[in-house]
Amino acid sequence: MSSEIINTSVEEYKKLVESLHSENYEMMVDLTVVDWFRKKEPRFEVVVQFLSISKNQRKTIKVFVDDEGLSIPSITDIYPSANFYEREAFDMFGINFLEHPDLTRILMPDDWNGHPLRKNYGSGRIPVQFKNAPKVE
Questions:
Q1: Residue of 69, 26, 64 whose CA lies nearest to 47
Q2: I need a labelling partner for 31 at 20 to 30 A (CA). Which of 4, 54, 100, 136 fits?
Q3: Do β-strands 71-73 and 96-98 pair in parallel, antiparallel, or remain unpaired?
Q4: Domain assignment present for 86
């Protein structure tokens, strides 16, 4: 199976996805976000993987999202399977998918503040005590 990685801009993203769909990439397999905190600017990169069963090929699109607006077009109108992936990216990283039909939290409670998978999000401070381990104060 051959695979290709395509880097694109937010402005060209949706057109590229539409062209992949017209080239018989039948499935959007995965959509996730990489937080390059303190390593790259802009810091957030949306990574989307597509599969063409008929061609036995995969393509990956990578898009850096501007830190100011954190917005990228939704592709749910082209690939309905992107719905929950985009909601998870919104919930965990705070990426806004423009024109998404229901961009609401999917994993965290509606009143939760912040986005837990951002690298600058504070980690929990609950001490864990294991059996037979000396107590730490």
A1: 64
A2: 54
A3: parallel
A4: yes
